[in-house]
Amino acid sequence: QVQLVESGGGLVQAGGSLNLSCVASGRAFNKYVMGWFRQAPGKEREFVTVIDWSGGSTKYADSVKGRCTISSENAKNTVFLRMTSVQVEDTAVYYCVAGNGDGISRQRLNEFDYWGLGTQVTVSS
């Protein structure tokens, strides 16, 4: 079973930057994608971004385009999320996800096979 562990959450000042990390272990598939979802208080979980581990292709939700970057360090089985100019609306629990396959078109909850427990990000004004 693949395990995903997020880190980097906490309190961030509005206008500042956010940096999250996710370490994967026990990977048992050759082709896969990794990414991030988030769930704000009282709202449904939503797609944020995804990256193809092999090809490096990425996709972002419209709400974070232009201020969000997903990257990976393959040797350490780690994926990163960087978000600049954060707003109060970015407050949410951020979840690291992984799925079998190499396509980045997926953005639904049931299209991913593995989930981290999440890390809380709170943006203060």
- Beta content: over 45%
Q: Give the oligomer, counting copies of the same chain as homo and different chains as hetero.
A: single chain
State the total count of DSSP E strands.
11
Mean pLDDT: 92
Which sequence of SSEs, written as H and E, runs from N to C? EEEEEEEEEEE
Helix content: under 10%
SS element count, helices = 0
Spatial gap, N to C terminus: 40 Å
Instruction: Return Rg in Å.
Output: 14 Å
- Give unreliable regions as ranges: none
Class derived from helix and strand content: mainly beta
Task: Characterize the biggest β-sheet.
Answer: 7 strands, mixed
Give the overall shape, derived from the CA principal axes: globular
Describe this structure in words.
The chain is mainly β. It is built from no helices and 11 strands. The strands form 2 sheets. Strands 2, 4, 5, 6, 9, 10 and 11 form a 7-stranded mixed β-sheet that branches. A 4-stranded antiparallel β-sheet has the order 1-3-8-7, with no helix packed on it.
